[in-house]
Amino acid sequence: MSTINEGYVYRARVAAEAAGASVLAFHVARFRHSDEAAWRGAIEGGRVLVNGRRVAPDEPLAAGDELEFHRPPWSEPGAPESFAVAFEDEHVLVVVKPAGLQVLPAGPFSARTLLTLVRASDSSRAAAAPAHRLGRGTSGLIAFGKSALGRASLSRQLREGCSARPTSRGSRVRRCPRRSPRASRSRG
User: Using H for helix, E for strand and C for coil, what is the string for 8-47?
Assistant: First the structure.
């Protein structure tokens, strides 16, 4: 079953080397998924904004201009709409991702993602962010940092190659190599 999402706002900033290009020329050159006629229609229809205001297609851009493209809602392909919780505390959430569910918004998926489901599932998860990803067709465990401390700790542990395993008493034993895996490889 497909779902109509709420659309999406894509944002970009004009680099110095693109300054002077028209709004239309910039979009045609940078975002090739649509042709000149489609971009002209989006600009004239007010779905492309520069610094928060409507513009004409031939208006020149300046370095640092902030661009927005307001993509209208679209129908997303079917995807699982639930996940299971494997572990949760105040800083970390580990979920069981089902196959067929994308982790982050991309391509045809904006609303039907694990990130969206996790953030909407509980107010304590509203700022959760995944520490890693799995492909859409893959099922498995995904760790989310629920707080700044949780996100930083998960990121550091993944960078250092740490692992944890449960004990019979319910506590976890954490093991980290003395050197990061990258440092070990670069010495060889």
Answer: EEEEEECCHHHCCCEHHHHHHHHCCCCCHHHHHHHHHCCC
* 145-153 LR contacts (CB < 8 Å, sep 24+): 145/91, 145/92, 146/90, 146/91, 146/92, 146/93, 147/90, 147/91, 149/91, 150/90, 150/91, 150/92, 153/91, 153/92
Q: Comparing C-alpha atoms, which of 129, 121, 132, 128 is closest to residue 83?
A: 121
104: exposed, middle or buried (C-beta count within 10 Å: 0-12, 13-18, 19+)?
A: middle
User: Each residue of 96-126: pLDDT tens digit?
Assistant: 999 999 999 888 898 899 999 999 999 999 9
- Report, in angstroms and rounded to the nearest whole number, the Rg of the chain calculated over CA atoms: 22
pTM of the model: 0.69
Q: Are 182 and 163 in contact (CB under 8 A)?
A: no
Pair of tokens at residue 54: 């409507």
- Can you list the alpha helix ranges (DSSP code H) found in the chain? 23-30, 36-44, 114-121, 148-160, 181-187
Q: Determine contact, residues 77/2, Cβ cutoff 8 Å.
A: yes
Token pair for 85: 């919780």
Under 8 Å between Cβ of 84 and 95:
yes
Q: How many residues does the chain have?
A: 188
Tokens 């692992």 locate to 163
